[in-house]
Every structure is written in C-alpha cells, then in structure tokens.
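BUG: 3D viewer hangs when loading the predicted structure for this chain

Environment: internal workstation, default settings.
Expected: structure renders.
Actual: progress bar stalls at 90%.

Input used:
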Amino acid sequence: MGEDRYLFTSESVSMGHPDKVADQISDAVLDFCLTHDPTSRVACETLVTTDLAIVAGEITTQAPLTRRAVDTLVREVIREIGYTDPEIGFAADTCQIDCRIHTQSPHIAMGVDVGGAGDQGMMFGFACDETPDLMPLPIDLAHRLVLEHARLRQSGAIGFLRPDAKSQVTVEYTPDGSPHRIHTIVLSTQHDRSVVTESGGREWFRDEARRELIERLIRPTLEAARGDLVRGKLVLVTPEDPYRDFGPDDTRCFINPTGCFLTGGPHGDCGLTGRKIIVDTYGGRGRHGGGAFSGKDPTKVDRSAAYMARYVAKNLVAAGLARQVEVQVSYAIGVAEPTSVLVNTFGTGVVPDALIGELVREHFPLTPSGIIDYLGLRRPIYRPTAAGGHFGRSDAGFPWEQTDKADVLRRAARLTAVA
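Structure tokens produced before the viewer hung:
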C-alpha cells in the first residue's frame, strides 16, 4: 500500500442476524399499526433468544393489535427470514411469544399532538459521490454481500447456508479520498453440517465451501458493483494460515475465520432492536446521533429527521454542490422547529457551507410534521428498511432516497452566488 493511502472498513449483517430479527419484528408491528391507523404512536422493542421472542413498548393505536395479532406477526417474520427448523434452537412455529405492550405516556403525547418532536436529540445525514446511490463504498459493498447471501440462501442456490451472517469490507483509498481497490473481505455465515469436517478433535467449515462462497457470492457481487477495484486475485485466507503472503493488489478473503459457524441466530446470541445503528446508516462514515430507527413511528425524530437529513445530504451531492456532505439537525422534545441545523462539506463544497445551510433551511421542511408530510412517512414502508440498510438501495423505493431537489438546489446556489 502506498504511503499516503489509507484503509476504511464497514460491516453489515444479514436479515437472520439476531439483532436484525428483532428489528424486523419491531418494524412489522409498526407497519401493521400504520396500515390500520396512520396516526399510530409506536415505540416497539423486541428481544429474541433461544426459543423466545419478547415484544414490548409503548403503542397507542386504533389498529387491532391484540396479543394474537402480535403472535401472528412475529411468527410470520421469523418464518419469512428462514428460521423454520426447531433443531437450530429458534423457529417460527415452536418459539414462545411474550407480548408486553402498553400505551404511550400522555406527557409525551402533549408535545407531539401539537406538532412537536417526540424526543430531544441530534440526527445526522450523510452522502458522498463514491457510489451511484451516493453512499460510502465500504458499507454499500457490505450490504450487497449480505443481500446476495440472502438471495442465494432463499433460492436454494447454495444449500448449506443458514440465515445468520455478517460481512465486512475494507477499501483502500488514495490521498484525495477516492477508492483505489477493495483490500479485504470478511464473510461469516451460519451453515449446516453438510460442509463440516473434523480434524484434531474440532469441527471445521470445509475449505471447498469457502471457495464456493468466493466464486459464487463474493466475486460476482464485487464485479457487478465495482469490478474495476478488484485489482488482483481474490485470495482465500484459512484459519490454519491467516498470515500467508499476498500480492500487492490481492484482495484477502476471510470466510468463517473462527473455523466453524453451526450455532447461530437467536440461539447463538440474544438479539435486540436498535443494536445495529451503524450498520443501519453509513458504516462509520459520517457521525451518528445515537438514536435507533426500527420500531419507531415517524413522530420520533430519531427516525424521521435522520431520514430527512439523508435526503438533504443526498440532494446536495446530486446537485453537484459538494462531493460529500454531512447534515446535522437537533430538536427539543415537544418543540417543532429544530434547535440547530449544520452543513459540513469537508472542504469539498463549490460554495461556502454557510450558504448551503441557508439553502437547506429555505428548501427543506425540517419540523416533524413537515418531514412526515413531505416524505409521506405515515405509510407502512418500514419493515424493508430493517435488513440491508436504511440508506442507499434506491431500488427499494424509500422516499428519502430520491434526488428530486437536485435541480432546484443547483439553480438556487447559482443565483445566490451571483447575487
């Protein structure tokens, strides 16, 4: 690696990861409520572990959210993810469901009912020109890997895969911040016993299966997304030889580097809603305000304002006003107008950041009710966000991923600069 180049890494997790199982259940409950009552107030939390799912939180809704309805929703989500075999410790038809839901605090409702924010806090949005969806490349590739993992598993194309998986992508950058090559891939996937061998008194994931994942999952995904950044060979790193020599442009591939991944999902690790906030956003590029998204209705600015901040940032980059943009907004509970708005282009802006900030306040609604109405957030659109990332994925149709403001911003910036 050249002296001035640097590495950046992001990870993603599959729909079968325990925390993502919990996120999908919470967002399924939210979508059910919004389908029947668009004004529902929902703060739904889920815990999953061995043979058990607990759904709790504060929900005020006219939807028929009975215990039986919650039970049905939970089992449908678990089944659709792919946990159907009781032998692996967590399955749709056999796990216990415990429902602990009550109504939202009336003291929170006092401020929200008049258009105020559902909580205090700060939210960030980010966009950059590294990918067509204006996302950082490492998290974009990491998401693509787990989404392709799910496709190959659900179609039966690779029969030994089970739902739990993680990906990690390291990209080498040039000094000006441009991606130079894909440096390292890590993929850990739960699997069945058909690809297990024994050696030295231990169970091991077969190297043949590792090579199959490289050739049928990793290579096609990378080449379809950024084949120009695969500059050398994709080289398998085995647990027996993790420090082998590589060519200067080779991409190292760590596949199940612990050696074996039979026990996974909620049986292998307890899952909780909201525990993958960096996976959900930008993979560590751009800051995070700390609030999770899943299970929250759009009056919670943790979610809706983060979506609007992404929408703002993406449109600013699409307008050509900067190569990368971070937008911060903050709120006081019960108050409609944001307490602050900040735009940072990291020196890539074609006009001053202060001017871009003025354009943001002029062209984007930033009150909670304004955000909800503008982006149409009272619809049941949230469960698809709970696996594969909330940002990027323009093919998913998320309203905050549109770039329909780019032309307006470009013209406004030009006129303002001339004035």
